[in-house]
Specification:
114 residues, alpha+beta, three-stranded antiparallel β-sheet, 8 strands
Length: 114
């Protein structure tokens, strides 16, 4: 499973369109995603204290666009092309705690080394 953080509003628009096209698809050519062990660090770095977010749980086998695992250290998954909404198996509310930091929602498996 790969994960993507977005706003609830953006996901609602994607549902109407049948596909998700974030701004990074236009500016960088891919959709930034994370693995379960990476998502909290990404959320705290880029979205700290921001509310109104959702976490998309994506089944890589259902993604029609190309997926590449890129980056330094532990590579991050990137989806090259729009994300078809049928590849999203679950949408979870993703709100920061009172300290502004995020925690992984219950039910998402975290690798043993995290």
């Amino acid at each position: 499973m790969i994960l993507h953080i977005t706003t609830a509003d953006a996901w609602e628009q994607a549902g109407k369109a049948g596909e998700y096209r974030p701004p990074s698809l236009l500016t960088q050519g891919f959709i930034h995603c994370s693995l379960a062990g990476q998502v909290v660090a990404v959320a705290d770095a880029l979205f700290r204290g921001q509310s109104g977010l959702v976490l998309l749980c994506i089944d890589p086998a259902r993604v029609k666009a190309e997926i590449r695992y890129e980056g330094y250290g532990q590579p991050y998954p990137h989806i090259y092309g729009p994300l078809d909404t049928g590849a999203v198996t679950q949408v979870l509310a993703f709100e920061p705690g009172q300290d502004g930091c995020f925690r992984l929602p219950a039910g998402i498996p975290v690798p043993a080394d995290h």
